[in-house]
Amino acid sequence: MQKHDQDYIKKKNKATVFQLIKSSSPISRASIAKKTGMSPTTVGRIVAELYEQGFVKETEEQVTTGLGRKATMLELDRTSVLTAGVELDKSKFRIGMVDFDGRIISLREVNREVSETAEQTLNRIGLELQSMIEQEGMDPGKIIGLGIGMPGIVDEQSGEVILSAQLGWRNVRVAETLKTITGYEVAVDNELKVKALAEYCYGAAKGSKRTALIGFGTGVGSALIINGEIYRGETNSAGEIGHTIVDPNGVMCECGKIGCLQTYIAESSLITESNKIKPISTLNELFEERRKGQFWAANILDRAITFIGITIANVICLYNPDTVIVSGDLVEKYDEVRSFFENDQLQQYVWEPLRDTYQVVYSALGSEGVVIGSSLLAQEKFLSIEC
Amino acid sequence: MQKHDQDYIKKKNKATVFQLIKSSSPISRASIAKKTGMSPTTVGRIVAELYEQGFVKETEEQVTTGLGRKATMLELDRTSVLTAGVELDKSKFRIGMVDFDGRIISLREVNREVSETAEQTLNRIGLELQSMIEQEGMDPGKIIGLGIGMPGIVDEQSGEVILSAQLGWRNVRVAETLKTITGYEVAVDNELKVKALAEYCYGAAKGSKRTALIGFGTGVGSALIINGEIYRGETNSAGEIGHTIVDPNGVMCECGKIGCLQTYIAESSLITESNKIKPISTLNELFEERRKGQFWAANILDRAITFIGITIANVICLYNPDTVIVSGDLVEKYDEVRSFFENDQLQQYVWEPLRDTYQVVYSALGSEGVVIGSSLLAQEKFLSIEC
């Protein structure tokens, strides 16, 4: 069991020391030992590790302890570490170089052909990264790894993409392949999970203890962050709300079940329904039709808004979060949907005892969330540090 | 933030030492320090606390360390501690005295009048506990507290019952009142949460990292245990799946929403639907009608079974557990429903990528789960120890 595991204890001890230096620097080794209950040997070993990794430096400052000895103070070296974050989507990918505090210092967006193979795409990511490093004159030695966020089910331990319906990938060893291409360590995860992590660390959910992020896009999914940790579940699939059944008499889903939530609110579903009436291809066009007074468009969107409410209410029942972040064009971009939140119509769908227990917010990092979150994932995975 | 909090570190350190003594006893203080990275001072302080609380004793055995010194070995004293666990329901309550290893050493069940006030019920619990202690000749000094598991929303921090629709209680300070009556510390929680805890510690979910328990009874609810800890959410209401909306065109729920899951499978809902056709008052009668070939009974139960499948499938999507415990008469007692599980018909409702990720099991502790879980809650709360 995890609790008894010594590797686990070591990892936790390191995280504790790191957090303490981050929150209380400058701080001495002795003070760390006192505050954590760890032995001076343990603290010394962990600090040495952090020092070697380049995170921690000694300050000029020294303090005199009770016994008249000098203690060297420690603080974080925020300039020492870079991670690259990649957002990978069907029709584009974006690469950002991110510093220790989650700031993007360079970003580029590249189109992706839908016909590209996984290998072609991963090769192009490698080339773009190399080109960014050279053009910006970055020190490659400071880059400690690469994180990727993408839609689908990802085995984040091995870095293998089990299934990404959007990209049409099945069992692709992304981390392994990209490590061979770039030479860097690579971490891969579901895009909503890393986005939620970014919002927790630097965005709309700072200080939240239980954050649920719901993404309304090509598919519909959610992620849960508990005390700063992504809740993954057994196969990193927790939060797959798009395939919960919300109407057993409903519409056939591409997954073979009937009445899955995403058949009512995924962008692709809304477009498919619309095309029974009129050939359109974007959400913009659908909202335009509604504004022109087309009842069919109003019917589709009214139903979608009802199900947006149900989605959030169901997430609140199961996760009981303090913060719900709603993200995606459908909920962020159109006044018709924004007014649903602004007028607090959501309350109609929320179980009464839970009505005052949460706040609903838009994402603060917007389109940069996945890039930042992917780089944080790499920080966590390769440096055992948390934001 | 919790991570940086020194009280939190202290509590975690204590739990770590306790776990280690439990899993590796006999063990010396020096060995604990080495394995945990803690200082001898910290280990000494924690061991002294555990010794004083009566959990830890020194063994006869001594080992000679490398330096030729004798080290005293420590082990748990399993006979030193008792906690009382109470299961409180509408029409009865049960009190069990539980030992350190989760074994019930004495149990009694007492009827409760539905008309009883909260104060009357709590007084009767106090009297029964007193009577048990006297009749069994127990040492009151060994009893370190009392845990209560009951239906409803409970503020487990303060021990106040916010709302229990089943008992008709609203804002009842159960812990405070019962402490005044009995003199013991009192912990209170939702019955499904403590039941899941008991199954994790000593029942069907031993060794599971992510357990979901779903209770099908007067209401429908669920609980999630992550690495041995109850996931509570912001107001201890996580898992209230009974009020997720699974059919926006469905039946009116007593909560004021339409299509809540529990309108299709809560026992009370099944009885209410049945009474539109024939006056019956128990699940037994409903199943009997079905066995007699009554189509109305078949229609109600077939729909219920569909929604049992949907309930479990939706929990799997959101929690991605390794183990799902199903409990309650509806799912455990009748062959018609048991065959649904035994023939693995559940798979029909589960999203394809998740089909091999979980096991569904019945509870192992059965009707004793809430009593045992309540006592474990008291152990955790008043001794800062985990099973």
Q: Could you explain how this protein is built, in words?
A:
The structure is a homodimer of 387-residue chains. Chain A is of the alpha/beta class and 387 residues long. The first copy, chain A, has 3 domains: 2-76, Arc Repressor Mutant, subunit A (Orthogonal Bundle), CATH 1.10.10.10; 82-196 and 369-383, ATPase, nucleotide binding domain (Nucleotidyltransferase, domain 5); 206-363, ATPase, nucleotide binding domain (Nucleotidyltransferase, domain 5). Chain A is 40% helix and 24% strand. Chain A is built from 13 helices and 16 strands. Chain A has helices spanning 6-24, 29-36, 40-53, 118-135, 174-182, 191-202, 262-265, 267-274, 283-291, 295-319, 329-332, 335-342, 369-383, and strands at 27-28, 56-64, 70-76, 82-88, 92-99, 104-111, 143-150, 153-155, 160-164, 169-173, 186-190, 210-216, 220-226, 229-230, 323-327, 359-362. In chain A, the strands form 4 sheets. Chain A has a 5-stranded mixed β-sheet, with helices on both faces. A 5-stranded mixed β-sheet of chain A has the order 14-13-12-15-16, with helices on both faces. Chain A has a 3-stranded antiparallel β-sheet with strand order 1-3-2. In chain A, strand 8 (153-155) and strand 9 form a beta hairpin. In chain A, helix 2 (29-36) packs across helix 3 (40-53), helix 6 crosses helix 13 (369-383) and helix 9 packs across helix 10 (295-319). The longest helix of chain A has 25 residues, at 295-319. At the A-B interface, helix 1, helix 2, helix 3 and helix 10 of A face helix 1, helix 2, helix 3 and helix 10 of B. Chains A, B: This is ROK family protein. Chains A, B: Belongs to the ROK (NagC/XylR) family. Chains A, B: It holds the Pfam family HTH_24. Chains A, B: Transcriptional repressor of xylose-utilizing enzymes.
